User: Fold this.
Amino acid sequence: MTRIPTGLAAVGAAAALLALAGCGGSDDTAQTGGGGPIAITASDDSCGVARNTADAGTITFEVTNKGQRVTEFYLYAEGDRIMGEVENVAPGLTRRLIVEVPEAGRYQTACKPGMQGKGIRGDFTVSGQATKQVDSDAKLAEAAKSYQRYVNSQADALLTRTTEFVDAVKAGEVEDAKALFPVARTYWERIEPVAESFGDLDPRIDGREADLEAGQEFTGYHRLEKDLWVSGLQADSPATADRLLTDVNEIVTRAKAVELTPLQLANGAKELLDEVATGKITGEEDAFSHTDLWDFRANVDGSRAAIAALRPTIEERKADLLTTLDAAFAAVDAVLEKHRRGDGFALYTDLTEADVKEMAAVVDALGEPISSVAEVVVSP
Amino acid sequence: MTGTPTTNEPAPDPAPASANAAGPRERLSRRRLFGMAGAGAAVAGVSAAVGVAVSRSESVTTVTDAAAEVVPFHGEHQAGIVTPAQDRMHFVAFDVTTRRRDDLVALLKAWTAAAERMTTGLEAKENGAVGGSPQAPPADTGEALDLPASALTLTIGLGASLFDDRFGLADARPPKLIDIPAFPGDDLDPRRGGGDICVQACANDPQVAVHAIRNLARIGFGKVAVRWSQLGFGRTSSTTRAQTTPRNLFGFKDGTRNLKAEDVEALREHVWVQPGDGPDWLVGGTYLVARRIRMHIEIWDRTSLVEQEVIVGRAKGTGAPLGQVDEFDEVDLRVGGAGGEPLIGENAHIRLASPEALGGVRLLRRGYNFTDGSDGLGHLDAGLFFVAFNRDTAKQFVPMQQALSSKDVMMEYIEHTGSGLYAVPPGVRPGGHWADTLIR
Assistant:
């Protein structure tokens, strides 16, 4: 698991917002279309707007609270859609709000003395047009759908295999459960970035003992892994197994409902490789069973599935990147398959230092080009 | 040490007329210093041959530069805490191997004498490097001969393990010298943490810092043994407003909101142990938290700029907090973008580490970038050696690290691999010695 359960969901969303707001790496956030910041003078019963027109692009407001009550300032688009806001402006203070407004149109400013109600509204007109990224590419839309089908199929298998695993644990069939453990996890690891985006469930399902916070209960796959391989089945193992199945059921339902953007696909493909590099190659993921190579294989499978969905777009926009990726995936496969044993893989503890180093090298060789896919996807 | 100026170094200019925009510390290149060192060494060799001792400071009296700066060793507080952060660090932790209290006191006295000398640019002992008996091994190891003081500071701290029954110090253990709890995601290597005594050497020349630690270790043989040590090659915090904010290995400005030497009132509140904090021997001292933080820089480097900025909560170029324009603009945690989502995310590093989110808690940070070779898997073993000073670790560092370790997305890219907490005694008065308020 990742230690911080936010990955794709929180950062992804925030990053998208930020990109939209135009703050990403640019040093020009102070520039305001139509010259200089717009002063907002808020009092307890008025909302002075120094200028109520601006060009599309980056608009900077300087909000000064001359009233006695704490206030807020908003810029709304039609339907009270928030374009930007600054909260908790204490009396006497001046605060800054930089808003990216890509489209011309009628907007509204609002001061909210006491931070309540609809506020003191004023019309605000934006003219002109800022360049805006239009994502109407049919190939990209199909990519998202195609990957969604993959997520659905893996989610179904995850539920089936986890049910079998849980049944074996509850029946006390230790050897069966041990055999099923890496199999059930394969489906989890293939769609890990999607599953992880549900921050509340991920630590319960996939939390590692070393990453628990004080007072947090050790549950999920890895708790059962410890029972099966180290401490023996415990009195509460069946209950832990039941809870795992409930959580997996929930996450499967949610994973099937999630709507993914092409950018999230690209980032997910990269994150899966990051997981391999930081967790699997070091043998930290399955610290008791040492079945890390199953997870390794599954992460790479999932990454490849996301790239496969994006393939037509990458081919059209940057064909040489695709060649590089194909070769790098093939190199990872070749190394990984050396350690295949029947339907599974050698245990991490059976690997030599040279084996691990060889794996790290091919994963790095793939991780570097895969990190450039996102840019290809967002910039036509 | 016989390097000559190369074409990519500034032309020799012994007396820059006005303050250089690049800051005083860059006025004299290290390579140029080394060039002078070469000449100085020759001089020293000659004078030794005729039996005249030449101290390091004498051979570089022409250098009127920040590199030659001497930071006073004596004072109310130890140097190396609010001292403008030097560029380089060598940190060491020792285990005390003697069981005799007298030995320990004698060592602290000998160390203090050597530290007083070395921080002024002198050898560890008079006539140390080359002026002694030709038949004896030199008392100073010699590699800093001819190098200026380079703003060397030596700061001592005492670990909890010193306060056991060996030296009768059990009752003097400060209650606030706690055992730092385990945090989620810690991967601590016992060989990179703890220790009875730590010494932090900071200087603008790495060789000067290493020389100081090496000579202290040498003086200590038979009484202490090196437990672990860490080199830092670039400061990651500024501790005065005159310094520019440096960057960590993630490429971001680090420590913009750090406590600064000028914040006298805040230092009293957040850093210096006050009367009544207990115990009395530590008044005027502080606590040093050391954390060796491995950064998975290769993974970080594959992360998009916008995601890096979201994780940190600042623009990478300017260092400005998201939603603001300049680096030192106030961080505004209550600004929302489209949909009212906070521009500085709920899990952004600067929000989680902010005094606003932590009930006013602040630290004085004084960390350094490091690389320690490779990890054996084709990656650099690189990161941040986090050093911070605070007055009450349980109320300052611990809650901050708890918030970061459980919520900070940056944790995906880092791992804490070493840890130590040390009580830092107050400054030494002339005639006194390190920790003489505790043991003499």
